[in-house]
Amino acid sequence: MDSQGGPYLNKKALFSPLGAARLCQLAMGCAVIAMVTHSAGYSGSQGVFCMAAWCCCFAMSVVVFFLDATRLYSCLPVSWDNLTVTCAAFATLMYVTASVVYPLFFVRIECPYAGCDVRNFRIAVTVCSILGVLAYGAEVAWCRARPGQAVVGYMATVSGLLKVVQGFVACIIFGALANGSEYSRYAATIYCVVVYAFCFALTAVVVMMTVCGRTKAVRCMPFDRFVVVCTLLEVLLYLSASVVWPVFCFDTKYGSPWRPSSCPRGKCPWDSKVAVAVFSFVNFGLYVADLIYSQRLRFVSSHLSTNSRV
């Protein structure tokens, strides 16, 4: 007991829906890692990515659960609510990706040379990974700001969650660019890479400012207006990149609109260019949705404040 007569441990970290979701995250993460290292196995860049995603999310969940249960998060110079919902959203995306990639590359209907036990373990890994997606998604849904409720933190809003998704999609774009996309052939495609990097950095700055509780660091304007201005700039930049990249990669003057027959699977520059183009449009749509929601939130806020003065 402390000097105030309260318990040392946070009971809500265990006996609450949020605590139950985090315990499920730990259980599924531990089960996945144990089965993969025991018998399911992994290989290649796809397997390394899946294993790294599961280990990273498990370690993150252990730290979050421990700090929440012991109340030590109060010693950290961060906004705890913003940090936890950001971690949960990021882990959800990582688990979703791993839950698709692992069975796609490692699960087969027929038994492999190592026997049916390996196949069964890989199926079990996939099932536990999907359950992990549900556990992390449940935490995001539980912490998400709802209409009519007080907003605990910006990252709990739809706009804040979209920031996490935008950063994740940008990482996919960077991975495709690094996989032999030949982006350095033209100045226009180099411009697109600069756009992707700048928008990712700007999104990361907004997220870091929110998580660190530095939303008052912008002196020339309110933080919500700063976010809207950044999002509008990102929309315009992604719009230009989403037009320029396909033109300089698939137009017959600069590239090929069709996949070369001699291109090896998994190491084809044309495939990487297609991935960059597709996810550029995806991120452009996410930024547009973010801008619309942010402006709507701003309008509602201003409308309410006007009514309160009346």
Automatic annotation (TrEMBL):
Membrane topology type: Multi-pass membrane protein
Annotated transmembrane regions: 20-40, 46-67, 88-109, 121-142, 154-176, 188-213, 225-248, 274-293
InterPro entries: Marvel (IPR008253), MYADM-like (IPR047123)
Name of a matching Pfam family: MARVEL
Ranges for domain MARVEL: 13-148, 154-299
Keyword Repeat attributed: yes
Alphabetic keyword roster: Membrane, Repeat, Transmembrane, Transmembrane helix
Location of the protein in the cell: Membrane
Gene Ontology, cellular component aspect: membrane
Family: Belongs to the MAL family.
UniProt protein name: Myeloid-associated differentiation marker-like protein 2
Organism from which the protein derives: Seriola lalandi dorsalis
